[in-house]
TrEMBL record:
Function text: Catalyzes the transfer of the enolpyruvyl moiety of phosphoenolpyruvate (PEP) to the 5-hydroxyl of shikimate-3-phosphate (S3P) to produce enolpyruvyl shikimate-3-phosphate and inorganic phosphate.
Positions of the catalytic residues: D315 (proton acceptor)
Assigned protein family: Belongs to the EPSP synthase family.
Top-level taxon in the UniProt lineage: Bacteria
Catalyzed chemical reaction(s): 3-phosphoshikimate + phosphoenolpyruvate = 5-O-(1-carboxyvinyl)-3-phosphoshikimate + phosphate
Amino acids binding 3-phosphoshikimate: K23, S24, R28, S166, Q168, D315, K342
Signal peptide range: none
This protein's name: 3-phosphoshikimate 1-carboxyvinyltransferase
CDD domains the record matches: EPSP_synthase
Keyword line: Amino-acid biosynthesis, Aromatic amino acid biosynthesis, Cytoplasm, Transferase
Source species taxonomy: Bacteria, Bacillati, Bacillota, Bacilli, Lactobacillales
GO MF annotations in UniProt: 3-phosphoshikimate 1-carboxyvinyltransferase activity
InterPro entries according to UniProt: Enolpyruvate_Tfrase_dom, Enolpyruvate_Tfrase_sf, EPSP_synthase, EPSP_synthase_CS, RNA3'P_cycl/enolpyr_Trfase_a/b
Location(s), subcellular: Cytoplasm
Amino acid sequence: MIKELSIQPTCGLHGELSVPGDKSISHRGLILGAISQGTTTLHHFLPAADCLSTLTALQQLGVPIERTGTTVMIRGRGLRGLTQPQQALDMGNAGTATRLLAGLLAGQPFETTLVGDASLSQRPMERVRQPLQAMGAQLQLTGGHLPMLITGRTLHGSCTEMQVASAQVKSALILAALQADRPSTIVEKLPTRDHTERLLRLFGGQIETAADHRTITVHPQPNLIGQSLTIPGDFSSAAFFMTAATIIPNSHVRLTHVGLNSTRTGFLSILQRMGGRVTVDRKLGAGEPVGTLDVRFAQLHPVQVTASEIPAVIDELPLVALLAATADGISTISGAAELRVKETDRIATIVTELQKLGVQITARPDGFVIDGRQSWQQPTEPLASHGDHRIGMTMAISALRVGGPTELVDAEAVNISYPTFFEDLARLNQEV
Ligand SMILES: O=C(O)C1=C[C@@H](OP(=O)(O)O)[C@@H](O)[C@H](O)C1
Ligand SMILES: C=C(OP(=O)(O)O)C(=O)O
């Protein structure tokens, strides 16, 4: 993969694309397959670096897993069949893998150490240690970060009021609660993506979500049974092409088999509110809603996004900033301080990068303000991913709209969630 790319302006994107499998569901499919009895087959698995970190870690925990392209076969070991790894598990760049495995390993009868790359080693882990400790877990952090030493213990069912709106922390608690001595209740701050709950039901677990969409009850010691499932396309990956088609004149793209779980599609609602031209054809997939998105170029209006909307659009907020940079007024995004603890501080990095294009964007502690009325300029220095896949892809889409060729450095960051991003972009750029 090329480190530095030159991106040419385009006259429009056209054609149909099936985006790769969902990252969140790929992680969870591997983990639930590993702790089930019998074989699990995942079709349309995402073979990106983050999910491969989970796959390798589970192999090191004694789970036989074979992958051929996007098909993965897992020979489940059951909830009590994992074995102590020979060495520390390297979680690479993957926050989701780290937090979910912390919850699972907290209840296993052995010691594990989790380590990660420079970015992951800066990300907050106290948010997972503290509620797991309340269940009797023993997790030792290094100044609140990785490396994390997990000494497996018998866990006790508990009632946790979550302090942060995080599907990763919720999922860690669910995986721990499966191994506890009595039922557990988790109360979310705001509803977050519910893929763990849905998949757990599919594998035979007993988990209830109350009508408030925030209170979850987990029944322990289930006998999970391996499944065969097709993972929907990743809405977060589709969002890059939804944005490109919206901001580049003459564009018209169709994105097929995209996951449309409403805990993930905040970006779609925001785009429609801004005047985006999107039609949605919804179907029901295996446990997750899927559908086709048909997106055309549109002139956008500004938008206000506040805290209650953030969890359903958290990973797409750099793209909301980009949309807002083309709108005919001032947009405000608030309640999004979580962006500061992702692969990079995404408030700082998106502000730095969009300012290179002459965009009027100002950082706030919990978001940003963007005036889209200023015309863009050709950047005088290269655009950069800062090693963050979502910032890299957002800036690659931005580069298509500027007047001349634009350099993008550290473009290989896309491997974390979308290794074929540049090939897929080139395909839509060639079709007429
Ligand atoms: O559970 C998941 O799969 C994810 C949850 C979100 O993180 P938080 O739980 O930290 O909000 C999201 O940003 C991440 O890309 C994937
Ligand atoms: C934040 C992300 O992932 P993770 O937390 O799993 O590293 C992401 O994919 O944007």
